[in-house]
Design brief:
By secondary structure, the chain is mainly alpha-helical. The chain contains 9 helices and no strands. Helix 2 crosses helix 4 and helix 4 runs parallel beside helix 5. The two termini are 31 Å apart.
């Protein structure tokens, strides 16, 4: 999954305006402008499209954690230079203060069944024998479930055409 698509889906699901996104980046001392945010939100076939790097998406997710849960320690967390779906999923779980039941509920909302044991394997260290990689499909379903949970009225309007 492309970083821009993940960023777009999170921003939409949590109903974050460009100015709020700039503030989220500011939580981890990363300076971005509303113009940069708009370029990241464009579709990749647009000539003004700017690709969001792993470092930038990681900074956004860290900023989201700080904005929703507060700063842990004296300084904001360092952004990872290389992101995986597992890291993205884990950061969203932390930011949204989700436990297994909440995550499984969101997956069910998106029409995806997953067991508690499978879920725990996603959050293990990569060198653990029961570690499992998070697929693009699973991350998409989680983001869809997140949207259905946090913006249900908007989804109903789109479906019913009201």
């Amino acid at each position: 999954m492309q970083n821009n698509d993940i960023f777009r889906r999170i921003r939409y699901a949590l109903d974050l305006r460009d100015s709020k996104v700039v503030g989220i980046f500011g939580n981890v001392n990363k300076k971005v402008t509303e113009g940069q945010v708009r370029y990241w939100l464009l579709r990749d076939d647009n000539t003004s499209f700017v690709k969001l790097s792993d470092l930038e998406l990681s900074a956004f997710l860290n900023g989201l954690i700080v904005s929703r849960r507060g700063l842990k320690g004296d300084s904001p967390p360092e952004a990872e230079e290389l992101l995986t779906n597992n890291i993205i999923f884990k950061k969203l779980r932390i930011a949204l203060e989700l436990h297994a039941d909440g995550i499984l509920e969101m997956l069910i909302l998106a029409g995806f069944t997953f067991s508690r044991h499978e879920l725990s394997s996603l959050f293990r260290r990569p060198d653990h024998k029961n570690y499992r990689e998070c697929s693009d499909q699973l991350l998409k379903k989680f983001l869809k479930g997140m949207q259905l949970k946090y913006r249900p009225a908007v989804e109903e309007e789109v479906v019913t055409g009201e």
